[in-house]
Every structure is written in structure tokens, then in C-alpha cells.
Specification:
By secondary structure, the protein is an alpha/beta fold. The radius of gyration is 21 Å and the shape is globular.
């Protein structure tokens, strides 16, 4: 029996968002292809350039702890996209050569990349080093794009929204290569467990519950502890996802015990099955991470943000506010009052759930799967297979009125 053909989802596990969208696309491809294709997710830089990968991830963790530095670096890159591309190509050239040679030994039917560095490296691999496999760039940021993604030679680019597509065109991506796709999330989020079933699994009773999501790295300052305790004192149960930050998890547990709130503060650490606490809660709060926000909306939970790091997260905040899907509290200290406002307004919660359902993450994800499957099997793009839904109408003008200024 002939071997099944493969779609390679090449990503970088810096934070959780890139891996989350890669896994969602892999799942969608396998469903759409009906067994004709396999899909494999690979932390590709860790495999082919481990020292560069380790430096990159360490640097990203350092920058996440200093959001002003993230925004400043994005502005600097955007001021000179051509220079940014040249620097990235120089830094990545050794990796680009190695990954090209490795993949050409057994070329996948299609390579899909979803990180800005990989957009640069794999476009260069196709244009300069003879990579045999067709490459699709999925530009992960939902509503914008920085010069990190500026790869004018890319042959196929999927932009989650019209707003992201506007930025990519401005940065030099050819209009004929660019397609609005919507934002894929794994099936377990757009087909989550019921609220009561999720609460039974977590041992939660009735009452208002809040999910505090702090990202895969659990980046938060001292102010998060006071916010968690104040939300719990207000009568809510707080589920705290602290990611890989074990020190933060320990600090929150100790503070809750000292305040006699251990029954209302549940520290979950790093969570693989995020659909369960999302389904169990009434509201998600925390950092404006794109992937975690989209997953919450897919489950039907509004999102209140306390902070944002890069300008991409600022765009997420604006989307939430202009669509009635959440709001930006501005700080962790302001979260308790923001949570109380949502808790005391059931009609607002219901409206946000309806607005989230209308986004149709299931349709968007299936459309991306159909598009990638068709390209892998035929070598032809078929934009009509995509189903971006409401994301196709989210442009720069519609976002301009919402959210804080950078």
C-alpha cells in the first residue's frame, strides 16, 4: 500500500499560540482529507537549529516580562521592513540551508508555517535554496501583522482577517498570494463539553466562576495576586492557569491559603485541556493572548483583559471592545471591578455569548482544512474553499474606534 502523503505544520513553540493554531490546522487537514493525508506538527527550529531556538525562546520570555520592549521592537521593525527582512535572512540562513536539505530528502506534500521567522526562512528556502515542497504561510496574528511577517516572495499567505491582510499588503506581500482565512481553533473548543459536565470534572459547584489565563509562560507581576484575591472576595471562584511558571502557582496558592480563600482560588498550573476550565467558567480574564482569546470566544466566553504585550495584542483588545465580546480593564488592579460589572449584568453576558457563536470558529477551521488539503493534493489554491465568516469584515477602519491607544 502506498504511503499516505504528509502536510508538515512547521511552528516554533514560543508561548502557546503558534502551537495551538498549528495543531488546529493539522486536525482540520486530517478531517478534510478523509485519510488521504497525514498532518504532523513540528517545533522545527528546535529540531534543526537547537542553539538558535534556545536563544530565541529565552529572548522572547525576557521580552514578555517587559511589554514596552515588545512594542518598541515591533515599531522599529515596521519602520524599515526591508532591513528587518535582511537581518532575519542573515540570522536564519544556516537554519534555512539545513531545513531545506532535511526536507528535500523526503519532501512533504505541503509545508505550512505559522511564525514570522519561519515565513522568512521558508520563503527564502523556496526562492534561493530549492526547497521542493510548496509553502503556505499562516500569519498567526488575528488582526494585524508586523514586519516580522513581511515576505514579498511568499507564494501563498493566509491572513486571519481583512485587517491582517491590509497590513500584509502594506508590508509587501503580493495581493495575488494573499487570502483571508479566518482563525482556526481545535475542534475541542468549538465543540466543548457542557458547562455542568465541565464543572463536575473540576469539582466546582454553582456560582459565578472566572478563568484567569496568564499564558503558557505564566507571565505576571506581583499585582496579579491581589487581583485574584479580590475577585475571590467578591464571591467568584477563580480558576488560575499559570502555565509553566511554578513559582507563580506556588505564590498564588500560599496567598489564597493565608487569606482563607483556598476554597475559592483554584490554581491549575499548565493545562493541556483548556476547553474544560473554559466551559466551566462564565468569564475569562487575563493577558490578551491571541490564541487563548480566540479559544475562549470559540467556547462562547467573553474576555476581559488586564494587559497586552505586543501591538498584535492591542488589536485583539480593540476587536473585543468593538464587537461587545469583552473589554480592557487596563490593569490587574482594575480587574475585580470589571469582573463584578459582567457578573452583575446577565444580559450582557448572554449577548457576548451570542456574538461569539456568530463568529463560527468551526466553519473557519473547516475551511482552512479544505483549502490546505486541496492545495496539498492538487497543487492548486482554491480560495472559495475558505470560510472566514465574520473575520472577513474585520478591517482596520472597524477596529479604529475600539480599545486603548498604544
Amino acid at each position: 500500500m502506498a504511503a499516505r502523503r504528509e502536510v508538515l505544520l512547521a511552528t516554533i513553540a514560543a508561548g502557546g499560540g503558534h502551537v495551538a493554531t498549528a495543531r488546529a490546522m493539522a486536525e482540520a487537514v486530517e478531517e478534510a482529507s478523509g485519510g488521504e493525508l497525514t498532518a504532523r506538527v513540528v517545533d522545527v527550529m528546535a529540531e534543526h537549529a537547537p542553539r538558535l531556538d534556545a536563544r530565541h525562546k529565552a529572548g522572547w520570555r525576557t521580552m514578555l516580562a517587559r511589554p514596552w520592549l515588545v512594542r518598541a521592537s515591533q515599531r522599529a521593525m515596521d519602520a524599515a521592513p526591508a532591513l528587518s527582512r535582511a537581518v532575519q535572512n542573515a540570522v536564519l540562513r544556516g537554519f534555512t540551508r539545513r531545513v531545506t536539505a532535511a526536507l528535500n530528502a523526503a519532501p512533504p506534500a505541503l509545508v505550512v508555517v505559522n511564525h514570522g521567522w519561519l515565513a522568512t526562512a521558508f520563503t527564502e528556502a523556496r526562492l534561493r535554496f530549492g526547497l521542493a515542497s510548496r509553502v503556505v504561510v499562516f500569519a498567526t496574528e488575528p488582526f494585524d501583522a508586523s514586519a516580522l511577517w513581511s515576505a514579498p516572495g511568499a507564494e501563498t499567505v493566509l491572513a486571519p482577517s481583512a485587517a491582517a491582510a491590509e497590513d500584509l499588503r502594506r508590508l509587501g506581500v503580493r495581493p495575488e498570494a494573499l487570502h483571508v482565512s479566518g482563525y482556526p481553533v481545535a475542534r475541542r473548543f468549538h465543540e466543548p463539553p457542557g458547562r455542568e459536565a465541565a464543572r463536575r470534572e473540576l469539582g466546582l459547584g454553582d456560582g459565578f466562576a472566572v478563568l484567569m489565563s496568564l499564558g503558557a509562560e505564566g507571565v505576571a507581576g506581583e499585582d496579579v495576586t491581589g487581583a485574584v484575591l479580590e475577585v475571590a472576595r467578591g464571591g467568584a471562584t477563580v480558576l488560575c492557569v499559570t502555565g509553566r511558571n511554578e513559582a507563580l502557582a506556588a505564590r498564588l496558592r500560599a496567598a489564597a491559603a493565608a487569606a482563607d480563600l483556598a476554597d475559592r482560588v483554584r490554581v491549575l498550573g499548565f493545562v493541556e485541556r483548556m476547553e474544560v476550565p473554559l466551559a466551566a467558567c462564565d468569564l475569562m480574564v487575563g493577558k490578551a493572548g491571541p490564541a487563548s482569546t480566540m479559544e475562549a470566544l470559540a467556547v462562547g466566553r467573553p474576555v476581559v483583559t488586564a494587559s497586552y504585550a505586543g501591538l498584535n495584542e492591542l488589536a485583539v483588545v480593540r476587536f473585543l471592545e468593538t464587537r461587545g465580546l469583552g473589554r480592557h480593564a487596563g490593569s490587574f488592579a482594575a480587574l475585580p471591578a470589571a469582573v463584578a460589572a459582567w457578573r452583575d449584568d446577565p444580559a450582557r453576558l448572554a449577548a457576548a455569548r451570542s456574538a461569539a457563536a456568530a463568529l463560527d470558529f468551526g466553519g473557519m477551521t473547516a475551511g482552512v482544512g479544505r483549502f490546505l488539503t486541496h492545495l496539498a493534493l492538487t497543487g492548486e489554491t482554491a480560495p472559495g474553499l475558505l470560510s472566514p465568516g465574520a473575520f472577513a469584515a474585520v478591517d482596520k477602519a472597524s477596529l479604529a474606534a475600539g480599545g486603548p491607544r498604544p
